[in-house]
Amino acid sequence: MISQFFVLSQRGDNIVFRDYRGDVQKGSAEIFFRKVKFWKEDGEEEAPPVFNVDGVNYFHVKVVGLLFVATTRTNVSPSLVLELLQRIARVVKDYLGVLNEDSIRKNFVLVYELLDEVVDFGYVQTTSTELLKSFIFNEPIVVDVARLQALGPAGLFMQGTKRMPGTAVTKSVVANEPAGRKREEIFVDIIEKISVTFSSSGYILTSEIDGTIQMKSYLSGNPEIRLALNDDLSIGRGGRSIYDYSGSSGSGAVILDDCNFHESVHLDSFDVDRTLSLVPPDGEFPVMNYRITQEFKPPFRINALIEQAGPLKAEVIVKIRAEYASSITANTILVQMPLPPYTTRVSFELEPGAVGQVTDFKESNKRLEWGLKKAMFLLNGLMSCILNSIVGGSEHTLRAKLTFSQESHGNITKEAGPVSMNFTIPMYNASRLQVKYLQIAKKSKNFNPYRWVRYVTQTNSYVARI
C-alpha cells in the first residue's frame, strides 16, 4: 500500500504527482529531492533506494535519468514497491513509446489516467499493458524521435545482415503509424550485466552474469511465438566449466545456475529442444531471467600499478585490453580509481594519437577518471565519429603523475584503488547465450513480421585490485 507516487527530473522538477491516501505531507517531493541531493550519511555518495524521513518511507528507482518515487507510512515490502516503480515506468514507456521528461509533460493526461488504473487508493490493481487497454481512452502524443540523442551502436537491431536503428522500438504500443497501418514487428534484447573482480596479479576472483531476455511486441492479434535457444544450454552446474579462451562466440556449453520465466511462457518442449513457446502480451516484458556464477571470458583485462616516485610523488599506470573480437566496438568506457586522500595534483599522459580519450582528477573525492568515448568531429559539415579507440583487440595505457601534500608513511597501494570500469558493449554477450530462431505463427500468407534481435553487455561491477 503506497500513499503517494511522483516523478522528478534530475533537476528536482516535479513532473507527475499523485496523492492516493492523503496521509503524507504535500511537500514530500521537495523533502525527498533535498535528502537525495545532499546525502552524506555513512559517507555514501548516493542515497539508498529506500530510506525513512520523519516516519515516511521513501522508495525510488532511477530510469533514464528520471526519479520514480513512492512514499508510505506503513510497513510494506521494499522489493514489492521497487518492482512496482519499475513496472510503472515500463507501462508508461509502452504507452508513450519514449520515456523522458518531454514525453511525460506532453502526455500528462494519459499518464495520470494510467496511474489511476494501476493504483487505486494506494493498492496495486494491474501493471499489464494489455489489460490496461480496456480502461485507457486517451491517445498518446508522439514525441519527435528525430530530436532524441543518438543511441549509437547499442541502439542497432539486427536481422541477418540488415540493421535497423534502435529508435524503431520507441513507438507506442497503442498508436498507429502515420499512414494508419500498424507495422508488424517484434524486438528481442539479450541484456547481460556482468560482475568481475580481478586480483592484483590479474586473476579472476569472482565472476557473475545477471541476464534477461527482454521482448517488446508490436504484433497484432497476439500470435504464438517459438523462441529457440542454444542446443547445449543446461541448467545447474553439473561440475563443468564454460571458461574457454579459445572458444568463439556461440560455441561451447552454456550453463545457467538458475533461471525463471514470464508467466506467458510455456515450457512443454524446453527440456527437449530448448524452445520457448509463448503468446506475447503487448508492450515490453522479460521472457526469461537467468544467472551464471561460473567462470567466463571477461571482455576486458585491467592491469593497474601505483609506485612511489619520490617523497611527495607517485606514478599510476593503468592498462586495459579489449578481449573481444575486432568486429565488435564498445560504446563508452569509463575507468575510475580512488587516489590517496592527500593527493593535490594529477598530470596525465596518454598514448600518442589517442582519439576520444578524456582524463580528469575529481579533487572533491580524490578520484582519477579516464574515459574512452566516441570522438566527434565535423567532416564536410556533417557530424562523424571515430570509434577506433575501443574496438576489440585494442590495448590502451594511461600514465598519471601524482603530487602529494604530505609524505606517505605506509604502503601506498593500501591507500589507492581499486580500479573500476563501466562500459556497454553492443552485439556481444559474455555467456554466449543466443537466439537461434524466432518463429511466429502465420495468420495469413502475407503475414511476415519483422524480427529484430539485439545483444548488449553492461557492467554491474567490474573491479581490479591493486
Automatic annotation (TrEMBL):
Domain of life according to the entry: Eukaryota
SUPFAM superfamilies: Second domain of Mu2 adaptin subunit (ap50) of ap2 adaptor, SNARE-like
Record carries keyword Membrane: yes
Biological-process GO terms, alphabetical: intracellular protein transport; vesicle-mediated transport
Compartments in which it is found: Endomembrane system
InterPro entries in the cross-refs: Adaptor_comp_med_subunit, AP2_Mu_C_sf, AP_mu_sigma_su, Clathrin_mu, Longin-like_dom_sf, MHD
CDD domains according to UniProt: AP-4_Mu4_Cterm, AP4_Mu_N
Residue stretches making up the MHD domain: 183-465
UniProt KW keywords: Membrane, Protein transport, Transport
GO cellular component, one term: clathrin adaptor complex
PROSITE patterns on file: MHD
Protein family (similarity comment): Belongs to the adaptor complexes medium subunit family.
Name of this chain's protein: MHD domain-containing protein
Native organism: Rhododendron simsii
